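Just curious. Protein, please.
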Amino acid sequence: MRTLYLLIGFLTTLQVPVWAQSAAKSPFTLVGTAQQAVVVLPATEPACVRLAVQGLVSDVAKITGKTLRVVPDEKNLSGQPTLTVGTWGRSDAVLQKHGKETAALRGQWEAYQVRSSDKNLLIAGSDERATMFGIYHFLEKYLGVDPLYFWSDRAPEPRQILQWDDVAISQSTPSFRYRGWFINDEDLLTEWYESGGVRRLDYPYYGQVVNPAIMKQVVEALVRLRMNLIIPASFIDIRNPAEAALVQEAARRGVFLSMHHVEPMGVSAFTFFNYWQEKTGEKPLFSFYSSRQKLEEVWRVYAQEWAKYPNVIWQIGLRGIADRPMWMADPGISQSDADRGKLISEAMRVQRAMIQEVDQRPNPPITTTLWAEGSTLNQAGYLDIPKNVTVVFSDNSPGWKWQKDFHETPRRPEHTYGVYYHHQLWGAGPHLAQGIPPQHTYAVFRQAHQKQSTHYAILNVSNVREFQLGLAASGEMLYDFEKFEPGTFTQTWMQERYGSQTAAARQAYQTYFAGFVLHDRQQVPMLLDGQTRSFALGLLKKIDLQLTDPVKYQEAETKARQATTESTWGQTSLGDAHPKPANDQELLEKVLRQHQGHTQALRQAEALLPKLEAKQQAFLKTNLISQIQIMLGLEEWLVAILRAKKGLDEGHKAQAQKYLKEATDAFTRMKTGQALNVTDGKWQHWYRGEKKMNLKNAEQLTQSTYQLISQQ
């Protein structure tokens, strides 16, 4: 009889098709009609994981209206479905019970698994950031939560049921070890909300501290994109409690903290001057050459403050006032490049020794960023970079290509290598309008990947909101570069935002990015928003002088053709950021061509607009149309000023006056673009701190020049 039962059972199994057996598997139900899963969050998990769980609970509530219960263990759960979170090395007992198969994660860097099994879900990480990233990856992939939801205003679709037959995410160690954001040129963030405090800077920008509530949103977006590093502001003085609060907010999220390359050891020129003003009332020269002991004292004091945080990535090097070489403010420093290289090398040696004194980690991460003259001196072989320091190469033109030393520097075993990449750069742009498409960012980072420069990647992201496409792409490619494909990413990104109109939206974005013209010889963008502004203001200054003092104008023109320390440094170190046209006629032809391309992009975007749903329309307006309008206004401004200058040069003052009037009118279009980004509610004061591009001041200068010529 037993044999008969076995035979019947065997035959019955044969008769059940594979699909039916699969269907019999119990799904994981996070939120159902009768009950929802309970989140098991062990007490051993750190703050960053707890904050991620809070985000999960909040996201589920937004989607379903239901609030998940969070408990520290499984006591009294009586068979309820669970979502268990655990980190190897912290919650091993829980993981041994529910996820032995994830034990291979032990000892890995930021690797995680998310998997469902028998009505339950497990999120397991190799370290605390891995577990945090696993939670956010699950929210994005399965619940449809935009990592940049605060900046995009894209809420996930409401659903009553959250249930999946199978949940499976497996993420190995990221392609780039340290990867993150530099909040730089953050003029809009600084004054958008009420001030977080006062900063002591002898500088027209950053007089206020970014509101802590905004920094909270910045850091949350960072970690939702699975980035693990942040430089939280420009020129941070960590001894100012209001500024230290920004660092503390980032530290809560478990990310690594670092410093602007202009403030090695956490010390900028502003910090140095403030320190000595408070201590003695004096203002010594900010120089490692002429004030070495005083500078070393400040380095040591600030190193001790930074060392109080657990995840610091130190920055070493030597920078002067206003992100320029130190020798520009100290004529006593040798004018020999070899001697300058020795000075920087000695400073790095001293800084590294200080770090070893204050940082108790056996091998604290240290970087030096080869920006501007650092790149030039390194390329010439004049820098002696200490062992075990990560050498960080920079792009020169914003986001377009690496400087020459990236390609020519041999990779040595005593160093690791990384990169500094600009999604934004105030002086040249992009700043108010994005300019670099994801496929080009990918091409540039592919070179970094091929050249073993993957230990560190810092992205200059400024005010965040304008660069959502680039930031989303960067987050994915830096975590898993081998699997990233820019075309697939772009298609998915467009599909998520524009649905059935994906093809038309993708074409409008493509036309916009392709509209930016390149310099013929250098093959880099030459009319990004900042570059366009610089050309226009430079021409306005010439017109003013031409109208008020023709003799001085001719003298200035002659002097401009002569090399100075500043101009030589700029062309040698930053030439690709500010490529020059052969003459004004070439510039006019370039800007007219760019205007034509952006006009076509605007037509495509506006034709698409009525075909979209309301929330899709809102995103297209803020993420693309507003930026096209700003660029078109800048281009029309520059075209009018170029024509006014030509008219004045040819003795046609009436013609020059006509075009200067057109230049003043161009600001109407820029304001139209900005108005699309300023709505009631949280965005009402978005441009209140707009002081970097400073379009208001540019308009006033243009009106002043127009009035000047009108009165003659």
About this structure: The radius of gyration is 28 Å. Residues 28 and 119 are 4 Å apart (CA to CA).
